Amino acid sequence: MTPTVVLPVIIGGLYAAGVYLLLDRSLTRVLLGFLLLGNATNLLLLSSGGAAGSAPILGYGDPEEMSDPLPQALILTAIVITFGIAAFVLALIYRSWRLVRQEVVGVDEEDRRVARRSGMDADEIDPDDLAPEDRPAMHADTLAADDDAERGLARHYSGIASDDVDLPTPRSNP
User: Fold this and answer.
1) What is the pLDDT of residue 67?
2) Rounded average pLDDT over 44-56
3) Are 96 and 89 within 8 A, CB to CB?
4) Alpha-carbon dihedral of residues 80, 82, 87, 93, nearest 10 degrees?
5) Are 53 and 61 in contact (CB under 8 A)?
6) Where along the chain do its domains lie?
7) I need a labelling partner for 137 at 20 to 30 A (CA). Which of 35, 74, 96, 109 fits?
């Protein structure tokens, strides 16, 4: 392989591995996938800058011999964005671990319920025409069911410690 082919192959491999890891249910793998995508983007921006040249801020060389400062600025911006999103995903992982002692996103029953519904636009849906279990939250028929759900959750999770134990429940305020 020639040196001109190596960098695009590495960039493509990093993008492929990053997308593969992003599609997993494990939040740790999602974080690693996002970091691989960030590094692949940095390499892509670095390779778009062309060959190395003299520093443009010094002004010693001809304009043709100077390196382009824009890819370097874009790489710095991409590093900051990648760091910020990685910190956010780390906070999600920590919060998930504190609440349910696992960092794998489970199958959501709400997603299954939505997938079972027939395909129609949201503008065509009249909440009064839907079955009670398919009606949106805070519909007139769901207010009583919310109290039952709150009591059931309070009964089920009463002995389980959480880091929000000092916070009052929304229904307990007078």
Assistant:
1) 74
2) 77
3) no
4) 180
5) yes
6) 3-54+65-100
7) 96
